[in-house]
Structure to design on (296 residues):
């Protein structure tokens, strides 16, 4: 069972440098905790909240990372595939280890309109974009001519996200791995995994990773964890069912993550739900204990 992190990218800060510094500190804390992978997300037109964009931010964070896998999410219908491939080629050259491309079709009328993308064509745009990115990363030229450089030093792994039946089928058909989002309850997570396994069998595919993102806080103990996370959840955190989050002391969190491993997930990608930087850094330190426990 692997435990990685997807760093929160949005921060309601007065000084833009503050949020960037917090992300750097969190990447460093994830490294020191021995977490297995490092990711950042993708979103656009988020004002007034500062949202630090994936490719420049990950380039900076890789200076804090090591040879463990790293990557970022691309909502492919919002991107020119040549730009995605060039950004990945450069990031993979900076990284000391394997690069993982997470991708999904995305959503939000405002985001799509602002990026000049047609939200009605998301599935076809996604598939065309992914095929083009993969071809370019393999060194193939565009039909119109031209190749990208640099190429990644090793093959890029592709995880595709989504929960709808069509999205699960797409992930099984086209992805090296699948990334489930943070919304499913533990019971729903098992049901979705069974559907994904069925789709993989239907397409004759064996995934390299079956990952789930979970919003977490690891306290010193149960009471300490709920002291920090309780008020956040009470405000209706991201519209999630509280049972879809993982909050507790190190033993409780390790038990919940191990349960996902027993269900068949290979990776849990955590995102911290607390706001206060020092609480998040303390949670990262305890995640090192959690990771050690689920590795046994």
């Amino acid at each position: 069972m692997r435990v990685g992190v997807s760093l929160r990218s949005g921060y309601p800060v007065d000084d833009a440098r503050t949020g960037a510094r917090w992300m750097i500190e969190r990447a460093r804390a994830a490294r020191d905790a021995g977490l297995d992978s490092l990711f950042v997300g993708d979103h656009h037109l988020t004002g007034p909240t500062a949202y630090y964009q994936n490719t420049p931010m990950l380039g900076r964070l890789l200076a804090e990372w090591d040879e463990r896998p790293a990557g970022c999410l691309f909502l492919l219908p919002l991107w020119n595939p040549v730009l995605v491939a060039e950004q990945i080629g450069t990031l993979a050259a900076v990284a000391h280890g394997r690069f993982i491309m997470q991708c999904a079709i995305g959503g939000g009328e405002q985001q799509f309109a602002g990026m000049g993308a047609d939200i009605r064509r998301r599935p076809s745009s996604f598939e065309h974009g992914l095929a083009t990115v993969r071809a370019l990363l393999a060194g193939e030229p565009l039909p119109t001519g031209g190749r990208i450089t640099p190429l990644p030093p090793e093959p890029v792994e592709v995880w595709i996200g989504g929960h709808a039946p069509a999205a699960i089928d797409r992930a099984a058909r086209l992805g090296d791995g699948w990334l489930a989002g943070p919304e499913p309850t533990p019971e729903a997570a098992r049901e979705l995994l069974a559907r994904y396994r069925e789709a993989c069998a239907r397409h004759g595919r064996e995934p390299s990773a079956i990952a789930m993102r979970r919003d977490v806080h690891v306290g010193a103990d149960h009471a300490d964890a709920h002291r920090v996370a309780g008020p956040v959840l009470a405000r209706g955190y991201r519209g999630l069912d509280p049972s879809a989050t993982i909050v507790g002391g190190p033993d409780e969190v390790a038990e919940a993550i191990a349960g996902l491993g027993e269900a068949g997930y290979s990776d849990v990608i955590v995102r911290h739900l607390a706001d206060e930087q020092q609480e998040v850094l303390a949670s990262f330190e305890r995640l090192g204990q959690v990771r050690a426990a689920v590795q046994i």
User: Anything to note?
Assistant: The mean pLDDT is 97.
